[in-house]
Amino acid sequence: MYRTNHTNEKNKNREKILIVDDEKVLADLLKEIAAEEGFASESVSNGIECLEKFRDGDFYDIVLLDIHMPKLSGIETLRRLKKLYPDISIIIVTASKEFEYARLALKEGAYDYIVKPFNSSSVKSVINRAVERSRLINDIKDYQENLERKVITQANQLISVYADTLEAMISALDMRECETGRHSYRVTEYTIILAKNFGVPYSDLESIAKGALLHDIGKIGVPDHILLKPEKLTDDEMEIMRKHPVYGYNLLKRLKFLEQAAEIVLSHHENFDGTGYPDKISGKGISLGARIFSVVDTFDAMTTSRSYRQAISHEEAIDLIKQSSGRQFDPEIINIFINIPDEVWTTARTNIERAGSNYLKNLLFNLTNS
Fold first, then answer.
1. Beta partners for 112?
2. End-to-end CA separation in angstroms for the chain
3. Are the C-beta atoms of 17 and 61 separated by less than 8 Å?
4. Domains in the chain with CATH codes
5. Would you say the C-alpha torsion 345, 346, 349, 352 has a positive or negative sign?
6. According to the model, what pLDDT value does residue 316 have?
7. For residue 8, is pLDDT > 70?
8. How many CB atoms within 10 Å of residue 346?
9. Percentage of the chain surpassing pLDDT 90?
């Protein structure tokens, strides 16, 4: 049974009703009926004034709309209103011999209709049904908004967990290799910059960034006497060192959120001409993320000082990288890389230093919400 007299009082006057009728007597009568049910209402005399009300920022949940009016017909007013506000409840007011108009109005999106001459009880019944519909729609919207907020909150919490997991992985490697963390952050940021300039879709950037961040995670599986050896490695030792991409791949592929990143870790030492390792893949057979990463990884290594050598300038590094186009690096990526202004790299490096430990969480949040 429909609730008319049992409507929760706290919801009274929540809905606003607009009456559109050029007959003042009928408009006043409808306003009285609405008032008897506890609803606030206003009236205008034609469709133009009705639309102006909405354009001026007013909003009404229910519109009682006469079919025959000067300046703009009820049907045309209905069409324009539904185009602007699809969820609005519009009740058509029509004469008893104009059922064809009523059917047309319902087809155009009217909620219901009342017939002139009308009695108070039938009008109240239709208005209250429309009000209940409006409340249901608003409740659904409120639920959706609350759900979206909850999803965003949970997503941010998940990002924080992911960031902590990645930080823990990098820290584990940091305990064995000096400066790995800053290097990992720099090459991650550089990789994103080059990927964006190359036209990589935003949907792929997160996985590429994770692959860049964890590119050397497999070194955890390399023995200390090889990983930390200050002298040149023997051939046998180099063979073991070159297994670190496979170690990293086997570690990351077990984690669902790092599966795609694992592919980049596996192939980040492959060369464009097929002379790299571990699988001697060549050309476009190497994942795009790995081809992009290899360029900026070399760039960062050349432009960062180490205990055994000094950094070279950006210009010198770019010139040397250009010489390896087609051999170590993808020529298409190199063409993009050499045209990125030097200040872009300098700014990125400065921003990473400033962000410190917040870099990773900020990065994942921005990529996830892009």
1. 91
2. 48
3. yes
4. 9-146 (3.40.50.2300), 176-368 (1.10.3210.10)
5. negative
6. 95
7. no
8. 12
9. 41
For 203, the token pair is 């949907």
Q: Give the pLDDT confidence score for residue 60 in this predicted structure.
A: 87
Nearest to 180 by CA among 167, 162, 195: 167
DSSP label at residue 63: E
pLDDT in the model for residue 3:
35
CB atoms within 10 A of CB 223: 11
Please give the C-alpha separations between residue 101 and each of 67, 105, 107, in angstroms, as whole numbers: 8, 6, 10
Residue pLDDT, tens place only, 265-309: 999 999 999 999 999 999 999 999 999 999 999 999 999 887 667
The residue length of the chain stands at 370
What is the per-residue pLDDT across 67-111, written as a single tens digit (0 to 9) for each? 888 888 889 999 999 988 888 999 998 886 777 888 888 888 898
Close Cβ partners of 309 (under 8 Å, ≥ 6 residues apart): none
Q: Are 186 and 347 a contacting pair, CB within 8 Å?
A: no
Does residue 278 have a cis bond before it (omega within 30 degrees)?
Answer: yes
On whether the pTM is more than 0.90, the answer is no
Cα-based distances in Å from 225 to 27, 42, 240, 241: 92, 85, 11, 11
Q: What are phi and psi of 95, to 5 degrees?
A: -80, 160
Q: Are residues 38 and 124 in contact, defined by beta-carbon separation less than 8 angstroms?
A: no
Q: Residue 132 has which token pair? A: 């209940």
* 3-class DSSP state of 16: strand
Burial class (CB in 10 A: 0-12, 13-18, 19+), 133: middle
CA 217 – CA 281 distance, rounded (Å): 21
Mean per-residue pLDDT, 248-257: 86
